[in-house]
């Protein structure tokens, strides 16, 4: 398990879900090389979708920024060696009104 090797960033997950995330990251790193971050992300995302319902997003890499909206209790950000893993369940809100002058385009496209 990665508990001792993972450097925890931010999280609002309950302990059991956090442990699942670390366990799945460990399994993913056993199955895939660190040079395959997309495969690692896919593995973790699919397992969380299966265990905790659809809507999970996973980003794995060495250099990335993020600004996300997530469901409460469904966010974790941690590093393992050179890889950083961001896992969260997206939050659905009301779409913001368009301010780019293309509001009428939405009704045409539908």
Description of the structure:
With 110 residues, the protein is an alpha+beta fold. The chain is 36% helix and 28% strand. It contains three helices and four strands, in the order βααβββα. Strands 1-3-4-2 form a four-stranded antiparallel beta sheet. A hairpin with a 2-residue loop joins β3 and β4. α1 packs antiparallel against α2. The longest helix is centred in the N-terminal third of the chain and has 17 residues. The protein is globular. It starts with 5 loop residues before the first strand and ends with a helix. The mean pLDDT is 87.
Alpha plus pi helix count: 3
Distance between the termini: 48 Å
Please state how the strands of the largest beta sheet are arranged side by side: 1-3-4-2
Q: Give the DSSP E fraction (strand runs of 2 or more residues).
A: 25-35%
Order of helices and strands: EHHEEEH
**What is the SS-derived class?**
alpha+beta
Overall 3D shape: globular
* Number of strand elements: 4
Report the major sheet. Answer: 4 strands, antiparallel
Q: Can you give the mean pLDDT?
A: 87
Task: Tell me which oligomeric state these chains represent.
Answer: single chain
Q: What is the radius of gyration? A: 17 Å
Regions with pLDDT < 50 over 5+ consecutive residues? none
Helix proportion: 25-40%
């Amino acid at each position: 398990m990665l508990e001792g090797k993972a450097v925890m960033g931010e999280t609002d997950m309950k302990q059991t879900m956090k442990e699942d995330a670390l366990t799945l990251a460990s399994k993913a790193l056993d199955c895939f090389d660190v040079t395959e971050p997309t495969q690692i992300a896919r593995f973790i995302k699919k397992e969380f979708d299966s265990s905790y319902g659809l809507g999970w997003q996973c980003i794995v890499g060495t250099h990335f920024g993020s600004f996300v909206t997530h469901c409460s209790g469904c966010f974790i950000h941690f590093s393992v060696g050179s890889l950083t893993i961001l896992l969260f369940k997206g939050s659905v809100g009301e779409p913001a009104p368009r301010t780019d002058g293309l509001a009428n385009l939405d009704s045409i496209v539908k």
